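User: Some background: our group keeps a shared notebook of sequences we're curious about, and every so often someone picks one and asks for a predicted structure to add to the entry. Today it's my turn. The entry only has the sequence so far, pasted here. Could you supply the structure so I can complete it?
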Amino acid sequence: MAESDPLSAIEAAALRSDRFRLEREADWKRLDQIVTHMEKGRIRRLSDEDVLALPVLYRTVASSLSIARETSLDAATLAYLEGLVQRAWFIVYGPRASLGSWLKRFLGGGWSASVRAIWLDLLIALAVMVAGAVVGWLLVAGDSEWYHAIVPGQFADARVPGASREALRATLFGRPEQEPLAAFSAYLFSNNAQVSILAFALGFAFGVPSLLLLVQNTATLGAMLWLFNGQGLLVDFAGWLSVHGTTELFAILLAGGAGLHIGRSMAFPGDRPVLQAAAEAGRRSAQVMAGVVLMLVIAAMLEGFARQLIDDTAGRFAVGGFMLAFWLAYFFAFGRNRNVGDTP
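Assistant: Of course. Here's the predicted structure to add to the notebook entry:
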C-alpha cells in the first residue's frame, strides 16, 4: 500500500495537469495565434474581435501561469505559459515603434509641437535671461570688481577689465590654427549641458531655481558684453558669439522653459491633481530636453570649428543668423498640424 501511494500521487498530479490544460487550452492557443501574427507583422489578417480580445487573453493566460506555478503543474506546461506570457507582454506593453520610426516622428513634428506647447514658459524664461544680461552689465558697469565674481576663470584669460583693444580683439580674430579647439568645444558642451540639465531638473521646486540659474548664466554674458563694448568691439564680439550662441542660448532657453513648465504645472495644476499635472508636464518637458541635447551637440561643433574657420564678423553673423532663423522656423512654423498628444 505504501508503494502505491507515490504512484497514486503522480497519477493525480498528471490528471490535474491535463484537466487544467483542457479547460484553458483554447485561450492559450488563441493568444498564441494572435501574438504570432503580430510578431510577423500580419496584424491586418487579424479580426477586430481578436485585436480587442488581446489584453483580456493576456490577463487570462497570465492568471493561468500564476496558478500553474502555485500548483506545481508539469514543467512543459509551465515553460509554455512562461514563454507565451513573455511574448504577449511585449505586444501589449512593449515599445510600439523602432528607434528609427520614433526619431522620424520626433524630428518630423513631435519635438516642435512640445516646444510650442510651453510657449508661455519660454516667454517667461526669455524675459528672465534678458534681465540677467542687463543685471550683469549694470553690475560691472557700476563696479568692475563684479566682473571677476560673475565671469568664470575659464573665460577670463585676456578678457578682463583694463585689457587693451588689441588684446581683446586678438581673442576674436586671427586664431584659426589654435590647437585646443576640440578640447574647448568639449568643455563648452559639458558646461552648457550642465546648465541646461540643472535648469530643467530644478523645475520641480516650482521653477524658481531654474529662473535663478538662467539669471546667473546670462549675467556672465552681460558682463562680457560690457567689457567688449568699452573697447568698441561690441559688434565684433556679438558676431563672434552668434555663430554658436544662437543655438546654444536657444537650447538653454528651452531647458529653462521646460523646467519652469514643470514647476508652474505643480504650482498651478488647475482642476487636476498635482501629481497628474506634474506627470503630464514632465512627459512634454522631457521631449523638449531630448532635443536640447541635440542642439548642444550642434552648438559645440559650431563653437569648435565654424567660428574659428570664419574669421570675419559678417560671415559669423551670417552663420548665426541662419541658425537662429532655422530654429525659429522649425519650432514655430514646421509641423504645426501636429498636436502635443501626437508626440511620440
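Suggested note for the entry: The chain has 13 helices and no strands. The chain has two domains: 4-92, 99-336.
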